[in-house]
Amino acid sequence: MTIDPIREEARTLQKELTEHSYRYHVLDDPVIDDHTYDRMLKRLVEIEEQYPELSVPDSPTRRVGAPPLSVFDTAEHSIPMLSLDNGFTADDILAFHQRNLKALEKAAIPAGRLLYTAEPKLDGVAVELTYEKGVLTLATTRGDGRTGEVITDNIRTVEQVPLRLRQTDRPVPDLLEVRGEVIIHQSGFELLNRSRLNKGDAVFANPRNAAAGSLRQLDSRITAQRPLAIFVYGVGLTRGLDFTSQSQMLSALKDFGFPVNPLIRGPISIEAVLEAYKYLGTLRPDLDYEIDGMVIKVDDIGLQQQLGEKTKSPRWAIAYKFPASEKTTRINDIIVQVGRTGTLTPVAELEPVSIGGVTVSRATLHNADEIKRKDIRIGDQALVTRAGDVIPKVVKIFPSQRKGTEAVFHMPDICPVCNTRVRRLEEEAAVKCINASCSAQLKERIRHFVSKKGLDVDGLGKKLVDQLVDKGLVSSFADLFTLTLESVAGLDRMGNKSAANLIQAIEAAKKVSMARFIFALGIDHTGENAARLMAVNFKDLDALMAADELALSAIHGMGDKTARAIAGFFSVPENTINIEKIRLAGVDITNDLYQEVGVEGPKESHVFAGKTIVLTGTLTVFKRSEAKEKLLALGAKVTGSVSKKTDFLVAGESAGSKLAKAESLKVKILDEIQFVEMLNT
Ligand code: 9MJ
């Protein structure tokens, strides 16, 4: 048989797989399923193994990694990769703007016409990718800015990086050096660390370290296993590419198939830049990747050239940093808190320090193993982070700053609240107080029960719960509903009005949805999503209480631990008796989520008919493919990327850049519950 038909098949597969990979990894809008992709790739691998001459450098098979190197080569950058000057206040940025205006005086730019791009400043690893006649031939790290390490095999494994520039109306440039930042998304970072922990490998301190460590592998097959991503934001040397502004250059890079951050704004005025910075700060906690500020660049390339460079940084750009999310402070003491399920958690009491505008005086230390692993002692100087809205934590301590007076911490053998002997569970790092009537646990359980996401009893805060338990007024959930004006009037700082408000708030909480009620019970491994999943799958609480572990674990989306915990919870007579008492006290548990799964047939009048909808984040009620099917059946269009044409964005857990983009375009955003509710109207 002649090789020609095989050559043709290989070419077709290479082209089609490249396109599908681009749609999946860059546009996030795949048109074939993973299985079909894998089958096509497998066939191409077979062909290339048999006919190695058909394995072109930009074949999708080249992404799996190459034989290991013994050392990295180095290469000099054609144009140095400079770093950026930092600014920390709006005044710093206005001063940068004034300096530019002054330096460009001869160019006679009126103040309002000097425009900028505003780009999220990614906290990753800077790289440069070289394309000769459209094909990726070299990739290097930034290194010291002049010389970097050659990491071409590693970069090839990053699925978002085009191995060949996409065909566009533009001519293929003879030479294109593209610069950008390799990152690991928060979600990928957590998965990676979890799997390392399971294997007993050291965990990475943050996504940037994980990205750097992954790119520094001599064996690119290891890099291929890491969830690396990239955003590009600039060029080095180019031949055969025309552009006169930073924003034009970014559009060209996007056309060539590179991921360009959707939150980049420009060209805009300096006033709009300052607004964009504030807005970016509000998005930051919800982004699925780490940014540490905004890079502001003069948009016009001609003006950039007139402004020129200093030795280490360009004059035409500045990094407007966000307030630090890490600070060093002293661990004054280590105390032990008892949680809702009896787990003893060591907590560092810190010398108060302001981190990102919030005073931090405590940080969780998780468990005794963690303290041992990080060798944390009372009196140590510690690096503390407050990332997004999570609880502050101790990243590391500085042993070199020890004075010799630091004290080693020991986990207590008895519960610090009820003095019962604690137990260390075999398979867990946790130490637990197993006394179910320990008042610390009871207080935490009640707090959780009445919290915002639970029964949402307004005004029933920590101090009040402490008093209710300490005075013996409440020893179970049901007791809350027997409180009277007289019984609460005697509490500290409880005036007549507050007492009336409290009783009224408790009364109002008596009507509660099943999902909230299940969450409020505080069953192990049962968060909001698992609680909703129960409400969707069981008509009412009695149906759920009757289900055994097998039935629970058969539910799609249900974890094994959750199934066991829920079945276990309802098998304890004390718990079911308590629920009965709650119901007898007049609590009405309604379920409006059930039976909403079976939406059928195209409905002309349905709110989603004819609408363009994007699904993002982790959905728990349906699989994404199921949600898509239901929407299609209703006559909706489901697309992969957010644009002005998008009518709704459905945002599941850890929704990232699409959510941010939808917000910036003012696209209507639905959380999963709203989505399920609308699906059933
Ligand atoms: C980051 N880190 O996101 C630049 N950067 O431009 C962006 N870094 C940069 N631009 C010139 N968006 C030097 C560095």
Write a structural description.
With 681 residues, the chain is of the alpha+beta class. It has six domains: 3-64, Helix Hairpins (Orthogonal Bundle), CATH 1.10.287.610; 94-321, 2-Layer Sandwich (D-amino Acid Aminotransferase, Chain A, domain 1), CATH 3.30.470; 326-408, Nucleic acid-binding proteins (OB fold (Dihydrolipoamide Acetyltransferase, E2P), Beta Barrel); 439-509, 5' to 3' exonuclease, C-terminal subdomain (DNA polymerase, domain 1), CATH 1.10.150.20; 513-597, 5' to 3' exonuclease, C-terminal subdomain (DNA polymerase, domain 1, Orthogonal Bundle), CATH 1.10.150.20; 612-679, Rossmann fold, CATH 3.40.50. The protein contains 24 helices and 26 strands. The strands form eight sheets. It has a five-stranded mixed sheet with strand order 2-11-10-3-9. The chain has a five-stranded antiparallel sheet with strand order 14-13-12-16-17. Strands 5-4-7-8 form a four-stranded antiparallel sheet. Helix 1 packs antiparallel against helix 2 (34-50), helix 12 crosses helix 13 (462-470) and helix 16 (514-521) crosses helix 17 (528-537). Mean pLDDT is 90; it is low at 596-604. Residues 82, 84, 119, 121-122, 181, 233-234, 295, 317 line the site of 5-amino-3-(furan-2-yl)-1H-1,2,4-triazole-1-carboxamide.
